Structures are given as structure tokens and as C-alpha cells.
Amino acid sequence: MTDRAFLFDVPAEASGEQRAIAELAELIDSLRVSVERLAEAHVALGERVEAIDGDTAWAPTGHCWRDLDADAARQLWAWLIAWTRWLVDRYGLAQDLGACWPAHPALVEELTALSVSWHHAYSGKADPDAPLRWHEALHRARHRWQAWDNTRCRHGHHTPRSADAVWSAPWPDDAEQAVTGDIAARQRAAPARSAGGTT
User: What is the pTM (predicted TM-score) of this model?
Assistant: First the structure.
């Protein structure tokens, strides 16, 4: 064994076995320092992941389209478009979703729900089988998309919703009249019960 400098004091007259023990002690000390550095890096990485997985770090503050103001909608659109682009590329969904999906409110709602669910499924707070459940939800969604008329948009051609796919303008009044008539008819038809419980 060649002479070398040791961190620990090893007398010049030390035996080969003593020198080997000193060398092992140095290696162990070096490993201890490396492990401490790795532990510190692991803690720092965990804190960064926790920040990313936090409730507000991964998603806009709100994702209910009906309740959003213009600024919140702008934020949600940017987030949803980026996620949907990733989804289509990752799962090869170009044939299931036309590029005009933002023009179809039902698809916007469905994709919003899928994106929120996906982010939760892959967060550190989710159950281990959450990603599997998310994939099952995606499978069901794809079948729904194929049944919807608005997924007929293909090859850059957008098909807007037809006029008979939306309710006519006076529908709220018609609906209110129908409800009022139904309730009135039920009140007239309600049987009078006697004190003894017979009619």
C-alpha cells in the first residue's frame, strides 16, 4: 500500500490493518457528508413539489365557467388550451376532438372537468388508484364525444350548432306557463282527506 495523507492521525509506524481502518473511516465520513447533502436536496425538492401540488399552484382559482368574470375566464382559457393541447398529443385524440373544440360549450365543460380531475389524480394528495379512475373517465368521455353532433368537425371544418339544437327565444315563458299549469292542476286534483284518513 502506498503512503498517503489521512484525515485521521495515523502514526507512521501503524500497521497495514490500522491504515486500512483509517482509510475506511475516511470513506465512511465522506459518505456521511454525501448522504447529508442528498437529504437536504431531497427536502428542498419535496418542498418544491409540494408547492406545485398545492391547491392553487396548478389550477386557476375557479373553473366553473358560469361563474367566471372576464379576467378569471381569460386565465382558465389559457390553462385549459395548454392542457388540452397536451392531452390531444399524448393520447392521439385529434380524431375525437376537432381543433374548434373551444367553440363547443359542452366540450369546453367536459374538458375542464377532465383537466381538473387529471391534476388532482396526479397530485401528491390523491389516492394511488386516482390515475386509473381518471383514465376510465377519459374512456367514457371519448365515447360521449363520438355521440355528440358537435364532434363532427373534422379536417379544419367547423360545424356550428344548428338552430334546432337550441331552444327558441320564448322558452322561459313557455316553461314557466307549463310549470304553473302543472302545479295548479295538482292542487285541484289533490284528494281531500277526512280526519279518519279516508277520502
Answer: 0.54
